[in-house]
Specification:
Number of domains: 3
Number of strands: 18
CATH class of the largest domain: Alpha Beta
CATH architecture of the largest domain: Alpha-Beta Complex
Low-confidence stretches: none
Helix content: 40-55%
Structural class: alpha/beta
Oligomer: single chain
Amino acid sequence: MTSVTEISRLVWLEVEGSIAIVVIDNPPVNASTAAVRAGIVDAIDAVENEPGIDAVVLIGAGRTFISGSDIREFDGPLAEPQMPAVISAIEACSKPVVAALHGRALGGGFELALGCDARVATQDSLVGLPEVTLGIIPGAGGTQRVPRLAGMLPALEIVATGKLVPAPQAQELGLVDHVATEDLGAEAIAYAKTLGGKKRSLKDVTVGEFDEKAFEERARQLIARGKGRSSTGHSIAALKLAKTLPFDAALTEERRIFNELRVGPEALALRHLFFAERRAGKLIKSLGGEAREIRKVGVIGAGTMGQGIATAFAQAGHEVAICDMSPEQAAAAKVAIEANINRAVERGRLDRGNAQKALGGLEAVSSISALSERDLFVEAVFEDMDVKKSVFRELDQIARPGALLASNTSYLDLDEIAAATKRPEDVVGLHFFSPAHIMKLLEIVRGTATSPDALATTLALGRKLKKSMVVARVGDGFIGNRVYAAYRREAEFLIEEGAYPEDVDAALEDFGMAMGVFRVSDMSGLDIAWAMRKRLAASRDPTERYVEIADRLCELGRFGRKTGAGWYDYSGFEGSGASDPVVRNLIDDHRMSKGITPRKIAPEEIVERMMSAIGRESDKLLSEGIAEGPEDIDLAFVRGYGFPEIKGGPLFWLKNRSTQ
């Protein structure tokens, strides 16, 4: 017979014979709030005073164990009881406590489980300490308990990278004691009974011997891979305390580092992005649409972008057909997609079983009519309005009712494209960034007539593709390319005034940008922006400042890496190319023709002007309602344009630069 006692609104206590079951019920993900923590402590206190209870099982209601801390608490003083106090209560309890894990046990949730005497997990559960990705370190014993169970080298991979570990692998590492195959609760209770009432506190365990040279070498690699995150180095330093300090002293120092980092600029920036990642979902859900089922996808256009989009959908489990009017081009694209999928397996991004499924569902066709049974169509043809409208008119004829019609346009008016169909409510923009199967950003463009159901479908698709999403209204260039165009124009103003491309790029890369603006132009192709400038030339204000240098390069056929020359020379050079006298001479001649006396421009001025240009254009974008909020612009620049995430995005940086 089971008795139930409500400890608090979020925690209750069940008793089955000699086993007490503490249930955490804080939907949707059982985040560790102050109320949850207090409820656990009260439940443990209640159990301690019950002589008929031999052991405790700690379990989460709903879809997951404690998924982590409620990071909204991190901005100010932390409410009591804090997680170390909860774990101390569990360790002080005279009865063993078994954590029953399902879904995700992350961060403070996993640290709580590590503070228990044993851990039982479902086959599909994940554990991990992702704090480093938020600019902090585990602050409730994670850096001390993981190495005591798994060893220093595995702990380094878990703590310093933030990677998530599937339960079977966690069991192999000693982080999980038993993987449940049927009923988690029943198997956790059964495991608790095997403990015979004995405690197994990790504070009594010493760290085993390990290869210190291998540890230091891997630590250096991870710090380099951390892209400037100080939390990576701090997490490694905290791990080393497991060998150099007594357990309690190491916990105190770990907590000190955690508290120092959580209110620092890096953590503030990364939390800003954490919440920005969730804005698109909240906006789309507020519209009340219902997602349609998408199994079969047709991609029209077999160029580099089309191949990347097809790869992304195939790897996510969709049946994909890529279409090109040329059978040879379609067949070649299929081969390229297959190579992308196999490369993902080689690099550990996709398991062999899912790769085989992706390859089995892939086909190439040379007629749009062959795609008639598809649930989603993604147009990825040349960036020309007439070409795109022609494709959508044909799709309107062959697509079944309820199919979603998406354009990958990066600049053009989605409403005009949608007007080429009799179903504008089913038309949406899905602007991927190249390479589409690698880049995280997905810009969802909401047309005037786009239905809530269509938008809800894009949200579900984006999540399945593991993309960072922003929602934009219709406007030239939408969010990303509209603001980036202003950023690029400011770079051209700088070279007109005295800098050279390598000066601007060096300043931006030293600031933390993944690539300088001119290197990016060469990689993506100068002809793309040139086409946009020519399209807008007739409507350009004749009094507006305009720099013709990029146009002159395009007129010379210098479109970037694909032609061997752009802002830089790539003939005979690997990687980033080399400074080119031809470009310098062209710039010098341009200045002379305009009567400009060049001046030396400091890196600090370059960065300030480039970021301020983003700020000015963003203000216009927000006032026009194309972007919902500044967070969307920050997320777009971090995930799509290589802005350093530890600075939180350009608008966040401009607002907080005095502290960064």
